[in-house]
């Protein structure tokens, strides 16, 4: 079996970190270095341990600080938001906002609008529900993937219910649950349970 690439660590002990940065310093070109940072951070984020999440945050923040012209900034802001959700809610929301601002001037897009909405609903940040709706409305892309339909319609259902628009909430909830015929979701979450209640 081939040895994983040097930027594919799934642990982040001191030796892993030291090896990564030693190799990174030997990479020529800003774009190439930024790409290596992004790839390594993504592996650490996927591993999702306390140690690797700390490492992912370090690398994403380093990428934003040292490579502000990177074409992947919207993605990096979104991934940083995901890292921060468990420990720094407000910073995570700001990261998603930064992703949305960044992608507005490029052809690249992220799921930051979904992640923002899901976070404010989970955290019961009713003061941000209107903003979540604006981000949802600003995205005109077709819903190609079932998971996108589930998230978009599910968020819309929660926001409609919060406004007292129960008919809309029911319709959106049913559309969200229809998507689950084609994609697996966590049915144990409060987000999903409410959708089932509204769908009837």
Task: Describe this structure as you would to a colleague.
The chain is an all-alpha fold and 200 residues long. It has a domain at 143-200. It has ten helices and no strands. It has helices spanning 14-24, 30-47, 50-66, 73-84, 89-103, 112-122, 129-138, 146-162, 166-179, 190-199. Helix 4 runs antiparallel to helix 5. The longest helix has 18 residues, at 30-47.
Keywords:
200 residues; 10 helices; 68% helix; mainly alpha
Q: Outline of this structure?
A:
By secondary structure, the protein is mainly α.
Helix and strand arrangement:
Blueprint: H1 14-24, H2 30-47, H3 50-66, H4 73-84, H5 89-103, H6 112-122, H7 129-138, H8 146-162, H9 166-179, H10 190-199
Helix pairs in contact: 2-3, 3-4, 4-5, 5-6, 6-7, 6-8, 7-8, 8-9, 9-10
Distance between the termini: 51 Å
User: Helix coverage percent of residues?
Assistant: 55-70%
Task: Let me know the largest β-sheet.
Answer: none
Shape call: elongated
């Amino acid at each position: 079996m081939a040895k994983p690439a040097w930027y594919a660590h799934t642990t982040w002990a001191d030796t892993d970190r030291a090896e990564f940065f030693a190799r990174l310093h030997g990479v020529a070109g800003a774009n190439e270095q930024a790409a290596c940072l992004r790839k390594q951070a993504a592996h650490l984020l996927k591993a999702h341990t306390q140690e690797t999440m700390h490492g992912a945050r370090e690398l994403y923040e380093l990428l934003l600080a040292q490579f502000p012209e990177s074409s992947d900034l919207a993605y990096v802001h979104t991934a940083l938001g995901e890292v921060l959700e468990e420990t720094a809610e407000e910073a995570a929301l700001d990261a998603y906002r930064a992703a949305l601002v960044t992608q507005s001037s490029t052809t690249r897009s992220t799921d930051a609008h979904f992640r923002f909405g899901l976070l404010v609903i989970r955290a019961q940040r009713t003061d941000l529900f209107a903003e979540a709706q604006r981000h949802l409305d600003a995205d005109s892309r077709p819903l190609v993937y079932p998971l996108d339909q589930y998230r978009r319609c599910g968020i819309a259902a929660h926001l409609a219910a919060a406004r007292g628009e129960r008919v809309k909430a029911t319709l959106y909830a049913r559309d969200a649950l229809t998507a689950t015929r084609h994609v697996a979701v966590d049915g144990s979450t409060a987000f999903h349970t409410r959708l089932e209640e509204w769908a009837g």
